Amino acid sequence: MQSDSDIHIERDEPLQNEDTSTTSQLKNVSIPSPTSTVSKPISIAPCPPVTLGVSQPPSIFTDSTTTPTTSIEPPATVNASNVGARASGFTTGHITPPISPLRQNDPDMIYGDDEAPITKGMLKVIHEKLDSLLHYSKASSTDDSSQATVKSLLETLTKEHSANLEKTNKAVDASTTVCNNSTKKVDKIIIDARVFMEKFQSSFELNTAKADEVISSLGCTLKTEKAKLQKVCTGLQTNHAQFNSSISLQISKLQDDLEMERKIMDSLAIKTEKVKVLTVKFKNTEKQVNDLFSEKSSYEKLYRRHYWLAFGYH
């Protein structure tokens, strides 16, 4: 025969792929012993077969999340301090969710294969229902059928918990497979990146050598062209100085020629004035000569006439 304080839950064996931290936390799931008890044994009669007329406690696997109420039962003469600790000590600890590469934003989500995800809120509801069930079993410990019902429900709860652990392990396996595939893809990408970087490095070194050679050749060519340009510039400067001196000499000579021409023009102007004066004098002299010739011809005519008259010629 077993009292309420001796009720405990079997430890689940950790699966092969279960997380170590989750397994160690699940091993600690048990009902703690009461801190202070009074030694008062309670006797429980053998469990009779369950009939339909016996009131059953509410099912813990319902869609409602409210705490179920117990049916009206006759008061039991049981000392509450002797029934052990409350089942609220039944905790599963913190369950670390598996890391999924598909979704990592919800820390309370545990993935299954084709089932709905299990959250810590659902586990909390199950724990609350288990607390109410144990409290109901303590309040109605004189009822033989309730003890059998509690045992069957505890077995059902254990099976459901094991099934949930299996689903969790499957989710962990699926996440591990996805992580392994992702790791392989990442490794392949890293290998491809390394090959690309090696090819890029070799191409970069080859192009650098070619560029250095081209730059060196271009530097030599530029030095040669610079020397030629300096030589041409020096020649141009010399030619420019010679050209400037020649221009200056020609300008000086031209100025001298202009000065001589100016003097010649002044002399010609003076001579021209003299020629003009002489021309006027010549014209006057010529006029006088013409006048004299006219007078001479008139005198000759007059002389002939007197001569003819004198010698009797008509």
Describe the protein:
The chain is mainly α and 314 residues long. Helices cover 62% and strands 1% of the residues. The chain is built from three helices and two strands; from the N terminus they run αββαα. It has a two-stranded antiparallel sheet with strand order 1-2. A hairpin with a 7-residue loop joins β1 (109-110) and β2. α2 (120-139) runs antiparallel to α3 (144-311). It is rod-shaped, with a radius of gyration of 70 Å. The relative contact order is 0.08. Residues 1-114 have low confidence and may be disordered.
Short key terms for the protein model shown above:
single chain; 314 residues; mainly alpha; two-stranded antiparallel sheet; 3 helices; 62% helix; 1% strand
Order of helices and strands: HEEHH
C-alpha-based Rg, rounded = 70 Å
The main sheet comes to: 2 strands, antiparallel
User: Ends: how far apart?
Assistant: 221 Å
Mean pLDDT across the residues is: 70
Helix proportion range: 55-70%
In the sheet with the most strands, the strands line up as 1-2
Strand content: under 5%
Structural class: mainly alpha
Region (Disordered): 1-42
Biased composition (Basic and acidic residues): 1-14
Biased composition (Polar residues): 17-40
